[in-house]
Structure formats: structure tokens, C-alpha cells
Write a structure and sequence with these properties.
The structure holds 2 protein chains of 2 kinds. Chain A is α/β, with parallel strands linked by helices. Chain A contains 10 helices and 7 strands. Chain B folds into 2 domains: about 170 residues, Thiamin diphosphate (ThDP)-binding fold, Pyr/PP domains (Rossmann fold); about 130 residues, Rossmann fold. Classes of the chains: A alpha/beta, B alpha/beta.
Chain lengths: ~280, ~325
């Protein structure tokens, strides 16, 4: 898809995000806004998938696992805008009996979701499992996962990192959303991860880096990653982003990790984001 | 009370239940190509070697990383595989509770969590490894089926049966060699209790190798002219409520016996059922809110009160409470 089209979709996704969290005065806008360009590009340009006939097994399809489940608003918006379920359903986010649970769930049969997430650190293992099954099934689909940088403080991530390299899980492309912030503040202040590129390289992964807000660069990097598939090593993309990207007062701070804007703040945000596809 | 009681249960041999798991896994692996096995560096202890040798492409050595194992197992179900995970009961549950909760139970994944070395009878390794809380943890999870088979044959049968059941299962077995009394060709049905001995005076409901202890207890009680009914409640969840209610309607009292904490185990499930239907005097054979220690399995069962003698004493006591 043309980059200009992807930029337009990402703008609408950002409008969806702030409207969804504002409507229920809860949710996680900061990380969601930061990953809007990446998830939009992944679903509208990179992945081979079938929004109109979703099934759990996804045979032949590429699969995506959102390990940092708290940024559910961006995923729900992209899934809806991609045709997995009606866009109008975004209005039910976090409300009683919704399929759009605060954190993603398979319990309510929302098309597009294959694994619950929210308790951090589990999605890389799940992605590896799905990738192992694709290998057994001689299925050429690729497994994509997304993780927060703060999430890498969980030990299970590194158990999974060891396994994937040791077993040559080369049909897996993990992306780390490096916005440098987490609930308690800047990641460097909470607990530093050191040099992530060197860490993943030392764990035996192919490491790529990209600017998570430059859609041309996202497209190019994902294309490079896909070329590395099947060559014996798992692939990780270190993606630099800005938490709250697209809404000026949400950027440069960790404050909007898990806080929703009030009505006045919502209007300020919407003034900065073009309505390109029509609000739900 | 009955005048003459004849209890004739044939002992077919003696073997560890984990070996039943190993044989069952191999056999179901031959029948069902979607069965895959994962192990966290305890292949020999779990008796998974035969499966590994015959199906190396379907065996996944994860290393000492149980959380990762549970996540990989959950992911492997996507695309139709039926993963059986193998490690000790402690590392199958307490160590990875959140992974099971989110990625397996809540996500409704078709993973079979197979747990050996449960309870005190793991023996000399001591309390760090002797988990007595696992049944409770697992039965509290929505979507989870919990099975504790009684002997080698039943563990083999249950291992094969759970492959055909769609949904997460916790299968618990152990290390020590225990008497075999279930016929090798018996049909295992999840959620359907086995009545081992018919009786009128007291119902004894047990799981795991405490079923055999309960049979021994019934024999001792028979010598005192007491007719005990012994039920093998191999499936703790979903509970065979009908079997319990029919039996206590006849006997009017119940003893539960398990190698587990009294809090949260089989007895707890029975008590909840009875308290909301027909409140019934009940005595518990189980571990009472304490950690185990090093010792031989027999020494530990005696010290912690989960032996034949304890079943007999509990039966005598509960009959007095009728």
C-alpha cells in the first residue's frame, strides 16, 4: 500500500484510540499512539492474512501476537479498520459484555485475537509455539510479535529468547517498541535494559533497527526482516517510538501510559489528528 | 451393619503412575499425529524417553524454563497441535500459575499439563518439591479439567483419554510404585467416578494412590463389621456429583482421602457439593496446612496422616457423627 494511504489510516487509528479511551475514562493511549504507524503498516501492507474469514488456526496466514496487551486500543482500531469486525464496535471498548476487553481476550470470540495478553512477558513464548506448529505443518506463514521495552524486564522473555535462537525459530519476527517509558517513569530510571541491540545479538538473534514513525522505513525494515526468514535465526526489530506520538501534550512524558484524556483534552487531541476514514 | 463383608480386589502388580503416563503418551502419539510433547529437562523422570525416541520431530526439549514451556505449548495449539507438557507437579503449577491462567486457561488452549512427583511421596527431596496445593490451584481456574488417576493402568488410560478431550487439562501423577488394581482394558471416562467397593455404612471418596489406601481401609473396616463404599474420584473437576450424592444418600457420611492439602483439594470440592445439597458429616484425610519434609514416602505418609490407618480412623469417627 502507498505510504500516503498508510499515513492517512494511521491518523484515523490515532483518532480511534483517543476517542475509545476518553469514552470510558480508562485505557492506555500513550503506547497505543506510539505503535499506530507500525501496527497499521503491519496489517495493511506487510502481513498475509484474511480479515473476512478469521479462524483460530490461521493455516497459511501470517499471525500476530500482541504481547504488551495494554495497548489494545491500537490493535482493536487496526483490526476493525482492516475488516475483522465492524468499526462501530470500537464504541463498546471496556464496557460491560464487550468483545473489546480492556486487555485482549479470546474469551469473547473477537476476530483477530488468538491469545489473551496483558500479564506481560508471555507473548514471545506463545509466538514461538505458533511458529513451531507452522514448521510442523510446513506452513510458510510468518509469526509476528510485539513487545514493550519495559516488558523486557520480565524473565520469561529471555527464556524465550534463548530457546528461539537455540532452536533456530526463523519464521518469527519480534518487534520491540522502545519508547523508553513505563508506568513508574522513564525506563532508564525504573530499571535500565542496557544496550538492547547488543543483548539480542548476544542471544543469537538477527537484529534490525527502525524509526517507528517513518512508514517508509517501517515498510523497508519489515521487507528486510521477511527476507531473513528461513535462514536459521529468529529476527527482532528494535523500533524507536515516542509514547503519545501524534498528540503533542501526550509526548515527552510517561504520564499518558495508562491515563485517558478528559473531554477538553480529547478535543485538543482530535484537532491534531485528521479524520481520514470517518469516525466510528 | 452388614454381617459378612467380602472384599475381593485383585492386585495386578505394582508400578509408578508416571510410567503409566509415559506408556500412554507413546501410545496416543502413535494414534494421533497431532500429539506433541514438551519437557523442561526432566524427560527421564517423566518417562517421556520412549516418545522422544520414536517421535523426535514431535518432542520439544525446552530446558529449565517452565514459563516458556507453558507459553510455547499454548502457541502450538494454534494450527491444531495437542501439546502435552511434562515436569514435576510443583513446576507445572505454582511456578507457572500466571502463564497457565492467561495463556492456557483464559485463552482456552488445548494444552495437557502433565505433572509428576506430586505430593509428599516424592520423598527425600523435601518440601521444596512436594507440592500439596496444585489440585486447588488448578481446579480454581475456569475451563480447566483436573484429573488424578489412581494407578499405573488408569494413568495410562487417562493420558490417552485427555488427548480426545478439547480443552486444557491438568493430569497429576506421582513417583512411587503403588499397587495396580484397575484392569488394563478398563474404559476411562473423564468426569465419571469409579465405584470400587459397594457399601452401606460410610462413603470413602479418594483420588490418586489414596484410592488403594482406602481399599485397604475398607478391608480393615470390614473386619469390624463396617461396610464401606469406596469411590475412585479420578476427576476432581468436573466433579461427578451424581456419584457422590447417590452414595451419601445410602451411607449418610463421608471420608475424603487425598495426597494434598485439606484446604482446596478433593475433600473441599465434596464438602462444597454436600453443603449446598445434603449437609453430611465429613472427615478429611489430607495434609493439614503444613509443608512436608525429607523422608521415605511411607514415613511421610505416616507422619503427615495420609495412610490407611488415617482413613480407618476417620471412617470410625464420621460414623459416630451420623
Amino acid at each position: 500500500m502507498e505510504t500516503q494511504e498508510l499515513i492517512k489510516i494511521a491518523s484515523q487509528v490515532r483518532r480511534d484510540i483517543v476517542r475509545m479511551v476518553a469514552a470510558v475514562s480508562s485505557g492506555h493511549p500513550g503506547g497505543s499512539l506510539g505503535c499506530a504507524d507500525f501496527i497499521t503498516t503491519l496489517y495493511f501492507d506487510t502481513m498475509k492474512h484474511n480479515p473476512s474469514s478469521f479462524d483460530m488456526d490461521g493455516m497459511g496466514d501470517d499471525l500476530f501476537f500482541l504481547s504488551n496487551g495494554h495497548i489494545s486500543p491500537v490493535w482493536y482500531s487496526v483490526l476493525a479498520r482492516n475488516g475483522y469486525f465492524p468499526v462501530a464496535e470500537l464504541a463498546t471498548f471496556r464496557k460491560l459484555s464487550t468483545r473489546l476487553q480492556g486487555h485482549p481476550s479470546t474469551d469473547h470470540n473477537l476476530p483477530g485475537i488468538r491469545m489473551a495478553s496483558g500479564s506481560l512477558g508471555q507473548g514471545l513464548s506463545c509466538g514461538i509455539g505458533a511458529a513451531e506448529t507452522k514448521k510442523l505443518n510446513q506452513d510458510k506463514g510468518i509469526v509476528y510479535t510485539l513487545h514493550g521495552d519495559g516488558e523486557l524486564q520480565e524473565g520469561q522473555i529471555w527464556e524465550a529468547a534463548i530457546y528461539a535462537a537455540a532452536r533456530g525459530i526463523d519464521n518469527l519476527i519480534a518487534t520491540i517498541d522502545c519508547n523508553g517509558r513505563q508506568i513508574d517513569g522513564d525506563l532508564e530510571d525504573v530499571i535500565s535494559l542496557g544496550n538492547l541491540t547488543q543483548k539480542w545479538q548476544a542471544f543469537g538473534w538477527e537484529v534490525l533497527e527502525m524509526d517507528g514513525h517513518n512508514i517508509n522505513e517501517i515498510k523497508k525494515t519489515l521487507a528486510t526482516a521477511k527476507e531473513m526468514v528461513g535462514k536459521g535465526k529468529p529476527i527482532v526489530i528494535i523500533m524507536t517510538t515516542e509514547m503519545g506520538q501524534g498528540v503533542d501534550y501526550m509526548m515527552g512524558t510517561h504520564k499518558w501510559h495508562g491515563s485517558a484524556p478528559n473531554e477538553e483534552q480529547l478535543q485538543m487531541a482530535l484537532e491534531q489528528l485528521d479524520e481520514t476514514l470517518g469516525d466510528y | 451393619m452388614s454381617e459378612t463383608i467380602n472384599i475381593d480386589i485383585e492386585v495386578l502388580g505394582k508400578k509408578d503412575t508416571r510410567s503409566g503416563f509415559g506408556e500412554g503418551l507413546l501410545e496416543i502419539g502413535r494414534k494421533n499425529k497431532d500429539v506433541v510433547a514438551l519437557c523442561a529437562d526432566l524427560t527421564g523422570s517423566l518417562k517421556m524417553n520412549a516418545f522422544e525416541s520414536e517421535f523426535p520431530e514431535r518432542f520439544f526439549q525446552i530446558g529449565i524454563a517452565e514459563a516458556n514451556m507453558m507459553g510455547i505449548a499454548a502457541g502450538m495449539t494454534i494450527g491444531g497441535k495437542i501439546p502435552f507438557t511434562g515436569t514435576f507437579a510443583n513446576f507445572s503449577t505454582g511456578r507457572v500459575y500466571d502463564q497457565i491462567r492467561q495463556s492456557i486457561a483464559y485463552s482456552q488452549k488445548n494444552v495437557k499439563i502433565c505433572a509428576s512427583h506430586a505430593g509428599l511421596t516424592l520423598g527425600e527431596d523435601g518440601a521444596t518439591h512436594q507440592i500439596l496445593e496444585d489440585i486447588g490451584m488448578m481446579k480454581m481456574l475456569p475451563n480447566m479439567t483436573v484429573i488424578v488417576p489412581a494407578d499405573f493402568n488408569q494413568t495410562k488410560q487417562a493420558t490417552m483419554a485427555i488427548a480426545d478431550h478439547n480443552g486444557p487439562v491438568y493430569l497429576r501423577f506421582g513417583r512411587p510404585s503403588v499397587p495396580i488394581f484397575i484392569k488394563p482394558d478398563a474404559k476411562f471416562q473423564i468426569g465419571k467416578a469409579d465405584k470400587i467397593i459397594e457399601g452401606d455404612d460410610v462413603t470413602i471418596i479418594a483420588c490418586g494412590h489414596l484410592v488403594w489406601k482406602s481399599i485397604e481401609a475398607a478391608k480393615e473396616l470390614a473386619l469390624q463389621g463396617i461396610s464401606a463404599e469406596v469411590i475412585n474420584m479420578h476427576t476432581i473437576k468436573p466433579l461427578d456429583e451424581k456419584a457422590v450424592l447417590e452414595s451419601v444418600a445410602k451411607t449418610g457420611c463421608v471420608v475424603t482421602a487425598e495426597e494434598h492439602m485439606i484446604h482446596g483439594g478433593l475433600g473441599d470440592s465434596i464438602a462444597q457439593l454436600l453443603s449446598r445439597t445434603v449437609p453430611t458429616p465429613q472427615e478429611y484425610v489430607g495434609v493439614n496446612d503444613e509443608f512436608g519434609e525429607s523422608g521415605t514416602p511411607n514415613e511421610l505418609m505416616t507422619k503427615y496422616g495420609i495412610d490407611t490407618r488415617n482413613v480407618v480412623e476417620s471412617a470410625l469417627k464420621v460414623i459416630q457423627r451420623k
